[in-house]
Amino acid sequence: MNRIIAFVTLLVGLWVTPLMAAENKLSKEFRVPEQTSTYVKKDKAYWTKVWHQKQARKKKRARRYSGSGRILAKVDLSSQTMNVYRGGRHLYRWKVSTGRSGYGTPTGTWRIHRMHKRYFSRKYNNAPMPHAMFYYRGFAVHGTNHISRLGRRASHGCVRLHPSNAAKLFSMVRRSGGTVKVTY
Q1: CA–CA separation, 143 vs 152, rounded Å?
Q2: What pLDDT, in 10s, does the model give residues 75-116?
């Protein structure tokens, strides 16, 4: 058996060797040029210019979105309304629901420090709080499903808005920051 394997190996070697030689001869005659890279290394001046152009675009975009300043949401507890201002200019007036008796809405001025597009109350049976903007401890401005109760005291202390108004306020605050001022 070993003799047969050795004989077959010898025959294959004798048959393959001339083919490989012919292939090498052809490859030497018709040599394909090596492909060179088209990448050109950029110098420091180029990347500095690109960086400055990018910063200028960011500033231009920020000016376009921010208008003339931060968002101020003034909540009036006695009239159950919210007035929205940007840079001192009045933009919107919306009905709200604030804390009913036994669940007061705290008065004062706070910056919005935390925002969630979808949030569920941990304290009140996973109640949905779409577009929640937290301004003081667990108190937030957020959308509500109880639209018929807007304009009256109905919440556990948060400031409730119509869902479309909450989405509008959320996007404005996300772009340029915001403050909530609650007064009587």
Answers
A1: 15
A2: 999 999 999 999 889 999 999 999 999 999 999 999 999 999
- Asked if pLDDT for residue 14 goes beyond 70, the answer is no
Verify that 84 and 18 share a domain, yes or no: no
How many Å is the Cα radius of gyration of the chain?
36
Residues of the domain holding 89: 71-183
CATH for 82: 2.40.440.10
Q: Could you read off the pLDDT of 141-180 as tens digits, one per residue?
A: 999 999 999 999 999 999 999 999 999 999 999 988 999 9
Cα-based distances in Å from 68 to 64, 113, 127, 164: 9, 21, 35, 23
User: Sign of the CA dihedral 103, 109, 114, 119?
Assistant: positive
Does residue 53 lie in a domain region?
Answer: no
Contact 96, 75 (CB under 8 A): yes
| Measured distance CA(71)–CA(112) in Å, rounded | 10
